[in-house]
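User: I'm writing a short report section on ligand binding and want a predicted complex to refer to. Could you take this sequence and zinc ion and write out the structure as tokens? A short remark afterwards would be nice.
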Amino acid sequence: MTQAPRSRWWRWRPSFRRDRDLITVAIERGADSGGCAVCSVLEARERRSLWILLREHVLDPGTRGDWNRTLGFCARHTSALCATATGMGQLPGVAILFGDTTREVARRIGTGAPLHVWRDCLECGREVQSEAAHLRRLAQQLGDAGWTAQWAPKLRLCVRHAASIMGTGMRTGMRTGVRARPTVPLADHLRELAVIGGGHDARSLRRTLATLQAALLGFESPSGIPALPLWGCGQCDAETTAVTDEGRRLFQEGATPEGTLCRRHASLLLDRSAVTPAQLAAHYSAALQAAAGALEERRTKRSAGLPISCPLCDFVEARAPELAASVALDSEAALCLRHVEVALEAPASAGAFGAAHIEALRALSHELGELHRKSAWDAREEPKGTEQTSWIRAAHYLSYDAGALPLARRE
Ligand SMILES: [Zn+2]
Ligand SMILES: [Zn+2]
Ligand SMILES: [Zn+2]
Ligand SMILES: [Zn+2]
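Assistant: Sure. The structure tokens for the complex follow:
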């Protein structure tokens, strides 16, 4: 059995002094990583947490109860879970969890209970807690002259985390609890990153893009859902086409859109050749320069806005009802979980469509059960069938549009 990925600071070492608690040590390790110190901590936390879920907690009744209550994870963490499971060879664990979700969704549709898709992702909750604890401690340490003298030269933060440390409650909703703003220059390295020289080959351009995205958007959860086979949500497909056209329009004739494209939409536009990597790099470079400027402004002005919202996410949000209405809903229509929730809000569509959808979910849950059963040693001689890809279809069903927001109203 492989070992759980653990940070090295769990080991006792002589340098481990009383005045440096585990949170501080984690931040220092993060500062040593070369990227955003807080993102580095969060990335390691996520890896550990998903590993432990799959290796140890997947059969725990309390964990399964929580999983059923929340219908599993948000799209981002569903994708990260698949990546972790694939790396560990733990697909049966994923089959169990996805099977739970499909049965629970079918039950809720059957009884007319609200779906509440992605309202309460447990991993997001743990991440928010960990992020707040580390930012609070970092802000405290930056008030300590000795610590700051030692660590500030190495300290790098992404735009979001730098903004939080500069004493704001921006989109992340974090409160550091420390009023005084640190005098450490947190935006200088962002400015340096934003300057991209010419003469890139394709590979170094991709690296530059990844660096700019990490500085602007924070760490990236691993994505582990194979592209095929699809679930085939008609509304997601319509959305994708509309977003690609809008992206092409935003970048046409050398223009660079305002804001910061999210990773999902950036890679969609790249895949569909709606933008070139060089155009994207120029966009991110401009966005990072604007963000560094706004961070500097925040030293004196609390309200300086950060240009971090994605113009294409904004576009989808504004056009969502229109796009949903453009797809005919009949009992044959395949929809992802996110769009099912919206479809069921219209009473006219709930009847035949709901019944057909429950059938589709029952079939999927049966296949997931078979995938789990056939992964046992006793069933090793049995021929494999379509159940082998059931986890991929389920992952697409649960997170078709990874990173997207819930569409139905929050209650
Ligand atoms: Zn960060
Ligand atoms: Zn989540
Ligand atoms: Zn969809
Ligand atoms: Zn976006």
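A remark for your report: Residues 191-221+231-318 form one domain. The chain is about 60% helix and 0% strand.
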